[in-house]
Amino acid sequence: MRGIQGCRGGGSGRSSGVVVSDGRSEQSSGMPVGVCLSSRRSDTGRVRNKFQGQRLLGGIVPVLVLVGAQWGDEGKGKVTDLLCEQAHIVVRYQGGNNAGHTVENEQGRFALHLVPSGIFNGDVLAIIGNGVVIDPTVLRAEIDDLEGRGVSTANLKVSGKAHLIMPYHVMLDHVQEARLGKGKIGTTGRGIGPAYSDKVARQGVRMQDVLDPAGFRERVMSAMRAKAEVMAKTYDQDVSSLEADCERYIEAAESLGSYVDDTELLLWNALRREASVLLEGAQGTMLDVDHGTYPYVTSSNPVAGYACVGAGIGPIEVAEIWGVSKAYTTRVGEGPFPTELVDETGAALREAGQEFGTTTGRPRRCGWLDLVALRYAARVNGLTGLCVTKLDVLGGMETIKVCTAYRHRGEVLHELPLTQAMFAEVEPVYEELPGWKTDISGATSIQDLPQEAIDFLNIVIDNVRVPISLISVGPRREQHIKVPYPNIARRPGPGEPREFDEHGHGGPMDDPEQ
């Protein structure tokens, strides 16, 4: 399989040309089983990549889904901010203010919790979709902060079907987490889980309800009285402040009425006009309520399959699905974390990467890159591209490790184990690579990277079997590399064969220009 190719040889001693992950050569297989990311130029002299040519957002790619491919906090905000330059609409499709996207651009440094990152581009329609749960006081404060710093929110729309978080949800979240004791989940305490519970129980309050002020107030206060009785009698909680808190939330929610719209219809009409849409997820695949490390997960579905549900469009519209992964792994909260480093190396990663929660400020657990979990994320999301962030954080290390398999009671596992009990017991199987001393924060192309960094990226490609579309080498918007992206990573068309290796991982088709 071809990997990322630099313009220099030597380095770590690993091959700087063809990289084969499954032991077969291209000649013997007839076609590559992986992906090709080459920095060569096309016949016209223009570097071919994901951001140029036929597969541009706004070209033949109507919808691109951007998902977290780890346990969240992967840097989706920056990637979304970059992709918004080529999108007409960006939609946040799930989660609540338990997530935070940090965006650093010429307007300053912003921590967004509900407003989509596309808000910074005045030509982009930013939508909070029906799959999101909204704390109205947080959204109101976020809008006021943006406006106060010169960022217009005139292009923000909120789905009338999005559910609201109320003070009783926040109180329940804290009470229920406290009662779990040692089995606590590590919730952010923002009321997300109880709000989703009410949604499923058909007891929720939605954004569209604010357009009927009298009915809205009655729905909130009725729900508050029922929840207060439960919390007072069952959990022995002081609920004397709930009514006043609900009044404050009602006021904040009603102030958002001008943003409420039929966003599903807006999207449908926009897609009929061939608009390009970016669907932005919160958290990450390994925190998905169905596909994550349950019960240590969030209360919604960050995976790509939910993007259409949470935005209100049909799956046939989706053309690309990109995952975002750090060059190492982090996690906030409780739950298994096979590659976690509780030593000086983990502390060094945390310090260099400034790994503290955008929403909570909690220090993140840090560890080496887990390629087994990343490969799993690629599979359950159907990733067509991968964005690697914080590659610069690994700079200066003598050696770098990547987890390529797990070991459980003597057995080597190449996929996530069937049960969470097994997952909590696995040990990582590492491949060790030479580090690099070069400062790569100013790199703008693959040619600027040291060979050791290129070798590291090729290891990711070999194991995950998804092309790398973008590399972030620093927090600022301009600190990134748009990776050359030949057309071989396209999905096979009708009737075209698709290859699979011995583990069932699909490889894309060959590049017709090779």
What does this protein structure show overall?
- The protein is an alpha/beta fold.
- The protein has 13 helices and 22 strands.
- It has helices at 26-29, 76-83, 136-148, 167-180, 192-200, 213-234, 242-254, 263-272, 307-311, 344-353, 371-381, 420-423, 451-464, and strands at 63-68, 89-92, 101-105, 108-112, 125-128, 133-134, 156-159, 163-164, 260-261, 277-280, 318-326, 329-331, 365-367, 369-370, 385-389, 399-408, 411-413, 427-434, 468-472, 480-482, 499-500, 506-507.
- It has a ten-stranded mixed beta sheet with strand order 9-7-5-2-10-1-11-15-19-20, sandwiched between helices. Strands 14, 16, 17 and 18 form a four-stranded mixed beta sheet that branches. It has a two-stranded antiparallel sheet with strand order 3-4.
- Helix 4 (167-180) packs across helix 5 (192-200) and helix 4 packs parallel to helix 6 (213-234).
- The protein starts with 25 loop residues before the first helix and ends in a 7-residue tail after the last strand.
- Residue-averaged pLDDT: 83
Biggest sheet, spatial arrangement of strands: 9-7-5-2-10-1-11-15-19-20
How far apart the termini lie comes to: 13 Å
**Oligomerization status of the protein chains:** single chain
Radius of gyration: 23 Å
- Number of DSSP strands? 22
Which percent range fits the helix content? 25-40%
Question: Main β-sheet: number of strands, strand sense, barrel status?
Answer: 10 strands, mixed
Number of helices: 13
Structural class by sheet pairing and helices:
alpha/beta
Strand content: 15-25%
Low-pLDDT sequence parts: 7-60, 485-493, 498-514
Question: What overall geometry do the principal axes of the alpha carbons give?
Answer: globular
